[in-house]
Design goal:
This protein has eleven helices and nine strands. The protein is α/β, with parallel strands linked by helices and 298 residues long. The protein has a domain of 207 residues: Rossmann fold. Strands 1, 2, 3, 4, 5, 6, 7, 8 and 9 form a nine-stranded mixed sheet that branches. Helix 5 runs antiparallel to helix 6.
């Protein structure tokens, strides 16, 4: 196996200038990662460490988020066009395996619907559901309140009381600080992420209209409920809503596996964020990804 290499920079794609990180092993399978809502690619730190010896890894921040620039109004078609353009601009060859967590998992489904020729398969880690559901969408609506609280904290010079404790507890110190500075604690980035969420209905409509039923994918679900962290977290997202969202996600994921012959489903004993942000959960997720890469996908 070749020595792993790391390159960071910005790249111009249609309608955006994207901040990216290229890591891993040149010539190995190419994985392109979609971040969860509002997050920058530092969220994948533990996953990168596990997968870098075995794959080439391209991380990026969607337009407007985490230092990436949005240069034209964002559209559903633009999200996939930018995703497809980035590997080409960087001179990366071969089919892409898209990997996303949470809202990033939904983005992977969008790309499978809109640019299937670019993708070999997708790996979705506890993704936001492809269709509307009152319990799930009630949680998504809390994002507007969360952004308002975070921007108030920024104006008052207060710590990031929503994401700060969890990020500092889960990620290495340097990566946690960067993530909070450029994305989940950055006013302009949070505004862009909130605007991107405004495309949710159109994203779901595009998936429903175009997603091929036999597209190959791995769906990794959370096996435990995410309990709100801290007093403010419990005020913004109560435990009852968190459990309803968890149970709904599990049911929708199993239903999707039954309806989609190309979808493999597995559950790991970690919560929604712990599958990627937590060290142990990320190791388990990475092991599942590696097993998928090494096995037959046809």
């Amino acid at each position: 196996m070749q020595e792993t290499k790391i390159r960071e920079g910005v790249a111009d794609v249609p309608g955006a200038r994207l901040r990216y990180r290229l890591a891993g092993t040149p010539g190995a399978p190419l994985l392109v990662f979609e971040n969860g809502w509002g997050a920058s690619y530092e969220m994948w730190t533990w996953i990168e460490r596990e997968l870098a010896p075995h794959a080439q890894l391209l991380f990026y921040n969607r337009a407007g988020i985490g230092g990436s620039e949005l240069r034209a109004p964002q559209t559903v078609a633009g999200l996939s066009a930018q995703f497809a353009a980035l590997p080409a601009v960087l001179g990366l060859q071969g089919p892409v395996i898209a990997v996303g967590q949470s809202y990033g998992g939904l983005m992977c489904s969008l790309h499978a619907a809109q640019i299937p020729a670019v993708l070999e398969s997708v790996i979705e880690i506890d993704p936001t559901p492809e269709r509307a559901h009152p319990h799930v969408d009630a949680g998504l609506r809390q994002i507007h309140r969360i952004v308002a609280v975070l921007k108030l904290c920024l104006r008052l010079g207060l710590p990031n009381v929503v994401f700060g404790p969890a990020m500092k507890k889960s990620l290495p110190a340097a990566e946690a600080a960067t993530l909070l500075r450029v994305s989940l604690g950055n006013g302009a980035s949070l505004d862009a992420a909130r605007e991107e969420l405004g495309l949710l209905d159109d994203i779901r409509a595009a998936i429903a209209a175009a997603r091929p039923g036999d597209f190959q994918r791995l769906l990794i679900g959370a096996g435990t409920v995410s309990e709100p962290d801290g007093v403010l977290g419990r005020l913004l997202v109560n435990s009852g809503l968190a459990r309803k969202t968890f149970e709904t996600n599990q049911a929708l994921q199993r239903e999707r596996t039954q309806q989609d012959p190309g979808c493999r489903y597995m559950s790991l004993p970690y919560d929604h964020g712990g599958l990627v942000f937590g060290h142990d959960g990320a190791r388990a997720t990475a092991a599942a990804v590696l097993a998928y890469l090494r096995g037959p996908r046809a």
